[in-house]
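re the bet — no i am not wrong, look at it urself. input seq straight from the record:
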Amino acid sequence: MTCTATPEASLRGSEWLTTAGLRPTRQRVALAAMLIGDGQHRHVTAESLFADVQRCGEQVSLATVYNTLRAFCEAGLMQEVLVDGTKSYFDTNTHDHPHFFWEDENRLSDAPADQLTITSLPTAPEGAEIASVDVVIRLRRKS
């Protein structure tokens, strides 16, 4: 992640927000440019994005980072991936796909979706429907 917010990265971030109906405030554009400014998908935690923001000299509080990531998820720009039920990662790739969680590094990465086959799911209880299925494959380095 580069600290130099290029005009292209800021424009890409601003357009990303506008297409989702979010007002492109200075702080949102700065965070959006960090997240998608290079055109690559990213997996971040609020804390890792906040550290990037601090390292790059942006004036954004941790609370603002949390609130902005939640707003991005609600607008459909990102998806939240829960690991261990306590740790949230935010992914700019909103298409359905599995993830690898690297336990030794506390890092999330995309897993190849074309290699995953789910042959059946349990029937949802009466009055409910399955909204989504999250697949997180936990990895650790071989000893």
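see?? The mean pLDDT is 92. told u. also The first helix runs from residue 7 to 19. so pay up
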